[in-house]
Amino acid sequence: MSNQLNAISPLDGRYGNSVKELSAHFSESALMQYRLKVEIEYLIALGDEKSIKELSAFSQDGQARLRKIYIKFNNAAAKKVKDIESTTNHDVKAIEYYIQSKVKKSLHPWIHFALTSEDVNNLSYSLMWQNGVKQIYLSALRSLNKELKKLARKYKKVSMLSLTHGQPATPTTFGKELAVFYGRLDRQINQIKSHSLLGKFGGATGTWSAHTAAYPKTNWPRFASKFIKSLGLEPNLLTTQIEPHDSAAESYHKLVRVNSILTDLCRDMWAYISRGILGQKKVAGEVGSSTMPHKINPIQFENAEGNIGIANALLNHLAVKLPVSRMQRDLTDSTTLRNQGVALGHSYLALKNILKGLGRITINKVQMENELDNHWEVLAEAVQTILRKSGKEDAYEQLKALTRGQSIDKTSMAEFVAGLKISKKDKDTLLTLSPKSYVGIAPKLVDLI
To answer: What is the C-alpha to C-alpha distance for residues 55 and 113, in angstroms, rounded to an integer?
Structure first.
């Protein structure tokens, strides 16, 4: 608790307990562990490369002992790496020296063999992002979308007044409106699931120069491809010193789109609560306002919208900055990449808040029906459409004269319809319509999800 109270970042402080799952992927200790994994798996792969005679293949027990170095990595080990870095002033070199302290001396030359730091870093950062997104974030996003689906089906027949341009418009159902958000998010979820991140492993400028100087007969591009795939990434064989981050930028933009959809959802829910057609469950002991005791503020949706704004600012910066690097490499990507976990943290926090907010909403059917009953003019669309069907050339103009800029009640609408020269069947159809029933196939549309 004292650490949280003294934290600079609200993700590590105020919201630390809400995003703690991400620490295993984006903390400084996690970065060390991912780097260790890349270095050790590379060492094992070198041993398996038959063209490298000077390094024997590791036995199953030998591989297990090596992998234990990163699998059992903990805070005490991380502190040792940090102590080494205080001397080297180089974080990747500190990882190399740490591994040397754990293995026999004959293996020391093969640790970080022919590599540049970026070979290790690009794979580590991609694995961090991929695992954080697919193991933590995506699960929360699916839970949110599952809740939207449940609510959409529950309220698929609950009619409500639509507002287009802020003005009363053709009614819909609350369930159908939630189904729209479900469908939008479902599409993004599928894209996130199928997206692949690229990795490079080609040395100082992507030419395998040191590798081929030492082992000219080894097929290093093939070796690198196999190794990168073994880590769960896709090989990029045409790079400078850095992997150009285009696939990472694609992934960041996917989250930007999710966040934009969720901003839309938050603002709609906020507006529905403001209109009074939605309510919120009371929580015992909770205070809505320090001075107005009656209030239950839509704080979850507001908190989510704020965090989404921070997340998208970071994600968009990452996406446009990281693919740009001077010549064969500059170091601007290094400090920038360290913030990808911050961007995901704010996105993840927003998901949790929206899920809490959805869990608190209640339907105010009385207010929904009052709104509908106060706006019979929304039936003008149906009336003029049936007039058009009957061949009336001035159908739109007739309804415009009757309804534009003014409210119409049940009686005035019925009187207008009664005076129309249309078939009895069409007239009966219009006379049985009400704003509450004029929702088309909205309930059936929910069944599509």
So the answer is: 11
Q: Would 203 be classed as within a structural domain? A: no
Q: Which pLDDT score is estimated for 387?
A: 86
| Domain co-membership, 290 together with 144 | yes
Residues 101 and 127 placed together within one structural domain of the fold: no
- The pTM for the full model equals 0.92
Catalytic residue among 2, 86, 106, 165: 165
Residue 165 annotated as catalytic = yes
| Mean pLDDT within 39-55 | 97
For residues 259-275, give the mean pLDDT.
Answer: 97
Among 9, 56, 289, 390, the active-site one is 289
Domain count, the chain: 3
Q: What is the DSSP annotation of 3-42?
A: HHHT-SSTTTTTTGGGSGGGHHHHSHHHHHHHHHHHHHHH
Q: What is the CATH number of the domain that holds 103?
A: 1.10.275.10
101 included as an active-site residue: no
Q: Tell me, what's the pLDDT at 289? A: 52
Residues 43 and 97 in one domain: yes
pLDDT at 413: 86
CB atoms near residue 419 (< 10 Å): 8
Q: What is the pLDDT of residues 329-350, one digit of tens each?
A: 988 888 899 999 999 999 999 9
